[in-house]
Amino acid sequence: MGNSCSNHLGIPPAKGPNAVGCTDFMMDHTAQGSFFRLYYPCQTTEKAQRPDWVPCKEYFNGLTDFMNINRTVGEKIFNYLFGSFKIPASLDAPFKSNVKCPVVIFSHGLGAFRTLYSAICAELASQGFIVASVEHRDQSASATYYFRDKTESEKANKKNVPKTSGSAQEDNLVREWMYYRGLKHGEREFPLRNEQVKKRADECILALDRLTEINSGTPVQNVLQTQFDWTTLENSMDLCRIAVMGHSFGGATVIEALCKEVKFKCGVALDAWMNPLDDEIFPRVKQPIFFINSEKFQWAGNISRMKKLDSAVIQRKMITIRGTVHQSFPDFTFLTGNWIGKLMKLKGEIDPELAIDLCNKATLAFLQRHLGLEKNFNQWDPLIDGQDDHLIQGTNVTLLQSAI
Length: 404
Ligand SMILES: CCN(CC)CCN(C[C@]12C[C@](c3ccc(C(F)(F)F)cc3)(C1)C2)C(=O)Cn1c(SCc2ccc(F)cc2)nc(=O)c2c1C=CC2
Fold this sequence. Notes:
Elements: E1 19-27, E2 34-42, H1 57-66, H2 71-82, E3 90-91, E4 101-107, H3 118-126, E5 130-134, E6 143-149, H4 152-158, H5 168-171, E7 173-179, H6 189-215, E8 237-247, H7 249-260, E9 266-270, E10 289-294, H8 300-307, E11 316-321, H9 338-343, H10 352-371, H11 381-384, E12 391-393
Parallel strand pairs: 1-3, 4-5, 4-8, 8-9, 9-10, 10-11
Antiparallel strand pairs: 1-2, 2-5, 6-7, 11-12
The structure holds ligand 71H.
């Protein structure tokens, strides 16, 4: 590698044997429907475009709201810093796998949205997984959109405009944006976050239901105008091998989703934020869980909640990646120079690509063990027990006696 300034900024390409395709899906068109970005093994095609990392400027608007910075200033900074990044995947490329693929449903963090974890999702797809990164409509995303039916007057005054290339459905539909909802002044956090984590789990389950329909060959109406042929996914998924994964608020969503849906055979929680969860669900979670934590984000109260899930009979594992911060998991960690990244807490001390590589390999080993995959991911089993110079088994956080 050259010196740091010659390092090309960008989301690192996936390392697995498969080329990665990426497309978007929404069904139905309402805020109660399922909306996710799909990453999957694809045919290698030269001509394929790379999908935009941030698909619309409204997402930057939402990010400025989330970060409490002025919209006009913030949108320009984000566009300048991040506006041109592409995802290391081929947009709408034809699906290709000669074996049924295990499935992962991914849940984003507070203030994030479906596209921000592509280094993790694309890596899993390159290793043979079909990954649906859901976009939550619980108002925890910086921004998200859905559609509503056009009113008669809207249809009327649209009549004299030549038909756009859009799909029939989208022409009678108007796009609506839903932005991040912060806590109101004096509002207690738990009731809101607990309601949101339940909706998030339901949206992960709905995404799984949509994938199940697609896998069975049921014709699905994707509201979005994409060039992807969903019939190619018929019989592509191994629906006995399904996991749920998520970052921070998405980590809490993993626990809630495991409790609600036994089709999720195991869960991987990245730097989980346990506050939204009601402890009474913990005894009801029966599946293996892998907690992969950053060194800087965790605190005694949060870790002690995770430890309440410890079990003598169900495998519950925890590792901490040395030198990582909370933002070491989303893609932002790859997209700025070192000093801006450290200043904005987007990077820790560890090289971001090494951190995500350790996270991905430990995840793959855990998924092989608990989904019963016949791959070679067991080569990374030692990482599950923190056996690496850059890993800590369990946590670096000193637990107060009272908190245990
Ligand atoms: C002041 C705002 N205040 C809101 C409650 C706290 C904001 N905050 C710390 C931040 C996110 C930060 C961030 C992002 C992105 C840039 C950018 F410049 F790169 F865009 C910079 C700086 C600002 C680091 C967090 O919320 C941390 N966090 C997150 S961050 C998930 C995320 C969000 C947006 C992204 F673009 C990427 C990733 N997900 C969670 O589920 C939870 C927490 C905390 C508890 C539960």
